[in-house]
Each structure stands twice: as structure tokens, then as C-alpha cells.
Amino acid sequence: MKNRIDTKGTLLIILAGVFWGSMGIFVRELTALAGFTSIQIVCLRLVTAAVFFSIILWKKDPSGFRISGRDIPLFLGLGLCSILFFSTCYFTAIRMMTLSIAAILLYTSPVWVMLMSALLFHEKLTKHKLLALLLSFLGCVFVSGIGSGNHAVTSLGVLIGLCSGFGYGLYSILGTIALRKYSSYTVTAYTFVIAAAGSLLVCSLPDLWHKITVCQSKPYLGFFIILTGLVTAVIPFLCYTLGLERVEAGRAAILATVEPMVATLIGIMVFHEYPTPLSALGIVCILAAIVILNR
Questions:
Q1: What is residue 125's three-state secondary structure?
Q2: What predicted TM-score, i.e. pTM, was given to this entire model?
């Protein structure tokens, strides 16, 4: 029952957020190794994930490749309107604004999920959910560092950033609907195959291929590309989708906001980027939201 707190589902969602929070390590390494642009890294990540998810589905349940023609729009929505759309909007927002502003706009996703869940699934907006939602949002604001300096923000940039949050949240909604009929393996495989196909159309494919061929002298580049797909897409999305089978979409969206907290901790331990008192307060807020949400 999704109305009850499910420990395994909760841990799966949090684990997904932890893996997503490690994205910075791989983005920086791939940029340093071959000078890939952000959207090219998105493409490599999606294509790698699509291959792995297809293999997993084939091993687990080959019959899972069969889907109803009437559900094709649902999977197009998951792949193009959610995964590819939010990724493209997010990296576009990063180019237009500071990373902190883009990140906090991405993490308006729980707001969108709460609203869409209330409308589509009739999930109740309890006081605990609203309080946890407020704390997690404030935590993301504090962790991102907004308010610590001057930031140039444009109306178009804010709109694109909000679109990234909407697309991110849409995965919880559409994923919940898809899981009523299909296994988590089918959902993730089709989602990423469609998203990967779309990403090949929006990235600069000739330039991407040129960078890969130029870097053939770096055998560990291929290892990092595969590792990026595994750690930042395959494992977390599989955990998140499995978690959605046990946890309400609204609760899952808030639990996943552990990601910026993890990213901050990785910044400290790996890149020696020590947080400000405001960032530390953000970590406390996110932890408090998770505790309140699971009372």
C-alpha cells in the first residue's frame, strides 16, 4: 500500500538520489578528458543507459519488450517529454544562468509532482507533506547558495529552468501510470531507448563522434563513459522506478531531493569545495524533510 511508509521503497528512492548526486564527478572528468559539452554528456549517458536497460530487460523478462500500441504515447512522454526534455532544459538553463539558480529551478519538481499527483491520483496534501515540501525546497535554496551573491536572471532563463523542474517531476507521474501495467524493467528500458534516440537528434553528433575518435589514445575514456551511464542513470533510475512501485509519487519526489545534499558532500570530500553556513543549513533542512516525511 502506497499510503503506508515502505522502508524498502524509501531506501530505494534515497539511494537513487545519492547516485544522482555523484553526477558532478563524471561531468568534470569527461569534460577534462575530451572536452565534451553538457548536452553531449547527456547523450552519452542516455545511450549507454539505453543499452544497459535493454540488456537487463532481455535477461529478466524478454516478453517485457511487448507493449500495447495504445501505450506508445505514454512511453514517448516518459522518454521525450520527461527524461530528454528535462535534461535539455536543465543544461540550457546552466548555460544561461549560474549553476545554483538552474539547480534550484530544477528542484521545483516536487512542487509540480505534488500538484499533478493531487489532480491525477487524488493524493492528499497533508500538513506533513506540505511542511516536508517547504523544508526540502528551502534546503535546495540554501545548498545552491542563492542569496550569497548577485546573479543575473532572465525571464527566459527562469522559464526554461522551471520547465526542467516540470519535466523532471513528470517522470514520477508518468512512471506511476506506466507501472500499473508494466514492470519497472520494461518502463526504464523503453524510456531510455526513446530518450537516447531523441538525444542523438539534438546533440551535435558529428562533433561528438570527432571527439571520441580523437581520444582513442585514452582507453580509459570508454570506461568513464560506461561508468557514467551506470552510476548516473542505470542504477539510480532503476532504484527510483522500483521505489515508485512502493512509494507515492509526491513522497518519492521529496525524498529524491537528497541529491543536492549528496552533491555538496562530494564537493567537500572530492573537490575540497567547503560549504558556507547557508549550505550546511540546507543539508539540515533536507534531512529534516526526509525525517518528517517518514514519520
A1: coil
A2: 0.78
Residues 6+ apart with CB under 8 A from 287: 261
DSSP assignments along 214-230, one per residue: HGGG-THHHHHHHHHHI
Q: Where are the alpha helices (DSSP H) in the chain?
A: 7-20, 23-34, 38-60, 72-76, 85-96, 99-106, 109-120, 127-144, 155-178, 184-202, 205-214, 220-229, 235-244, 249-255, 258-269, 277-293
Selection from 113-117, 152-156, 195-199, 285-289 with the highest mean pLDDT: 195-199
Pairwise CA distance, residues 13 & 75, whole Å: 21
Per-residue exposure over 257-271, b if at least 16 CB sit within 10 Å of its own CB, e if not: bbbbbbbbebbeeee
Angle at CA 190, nearest 5°, toward 57 and 73? 145
Q: What span, in angstroms and rounded, lies between the C-alpha atoms of 254 and 108?
A: 10
Q: Which of 2-6, 150-154, 155-159 has the highest mean pLDDT?
A: 155-159
Quote the CA–CA distance of 17 and 263 in Å, as a whole number: 10
Cα–Cα distance measured from residue 193 to residue 76, given in angstroms and rounded to the nearest whole number: 10
pLDDT value for 34: 79
pLDDT by residue (tens digit) across 16-35?
Answer: 989 988 887 887 788 777 78
Identify the burial level of 137 via C-beta atoms within 10 angstroms of its C-beta, where 0-12 means exposed, 13-18 middle and 19 or more buried.
buried
Amino acid sitting at position 119 = L
Amino acid symbol at 218: K
Cβ-in-10-Å burial (0-12, 13-18, 19+) of 140 comes to buried
